[in-house]
Amino acid sequence: MIETAPSCSDIQRAIRTIPDFPKPGIQFKDITPVLADARLFSASIDLLTEDFRPGMVDAVVGIDARGFIFAGAAALKLQAGFVPIRKKGKLPYQTHEQEYALEYGTAVVAVHVDALKRGDRVLIIDDLLATGGTASAAAVLVKGLGARIVGISFLIELGFLGGRKKLSEFPVRSLIVF
Ligand code: AMP
Predict the structure, then answer these.
(1) Of the listed 50, 103, 148, 169, which one is catalytic?
(2) From first to last of its 178 residues, what are the pLDDT tens digits of the chain?
């Protein structure tokens, strides 16, 4: 029997929703069961990179921390480099920083000043799009280095939060919408 690759619905069924984590009112989407299943993990990388072939992307940018897991694997598949965007204070070399709004207060993400070259074609990947603050801050950093964003891909989108509006200038893809 020929085995078919897992679909987005198969991946969706494996995602576990944890109520009130890390604080009351948050429905946390736990992707660890997807990562632990080789077929689901592999299918999620295939689907996240579906619009691209090796040679179409110079770097895959992953967002701290769960984005790294998907972006690293996607970079290997697309034969591209991997670049981390991290929370402020974690990267060892000189950085550019970008602040963004959280529900309460602000946060800052950073990228190394030499992480990308002018004109590099970049695919940004994170596990989840919520309000879009994190991904749009990451996009500002990538554009600030002169690179060109050819796509932003998420495993999960919380559609009811409307984060996609903040990314309307980019091709955005999400595999699963809640
Ligand atoms: P936002 O900036 O609001 O789009 O939030 C996106 C970032 O926060 C991503 O890096 C996610 O990993 C994390 N995040 C936000 N909401 C959730 C959630 N309900 N479950 C899991 N991760 C979340």
Answers:
(1) 103
(2) 778 999 999 999 999 999 999 999 999 999 999 999 999 999 999 999 999 999 999 999 999 999 999 999 999 999 999 999 999 999 999 999 999 998 789 999 999 999 999 999 999 999 999 999 999 999 999 999 999 999 999 999 999 999 999 999 999 999 999 9
Is 103 catalytic? The answer is: yes
Lining residues, ligand 1, CB within 6 Å: 26-29, 63, 66, 126-135, 163
- Index of the ligand 1 atom closest to the CA of residue 28: 20
> Which residues of 79-171 form beta strands (DSSP E)?
81-87, 95-101, 106-112, 121-129, 148-157
Report the distance separating Cα 137 and Cα 4, nearest Å. Answer: 37
CATH code at 52-177: 3.40.50.2020
* Ligand 1 closest atom vs CA 26: 19
Domain ranges of the chain: 52-177
Query: Can you say whether the dihedral through the CA atoms of 68, 71, 76, 81 is positive or negative?
Result: negative
* Residues paired with 112 in a beta bridge: 95
Nearest CA to ligand 1 atom 17: 28
Q: What is the pTM of this model?
A: 0.98
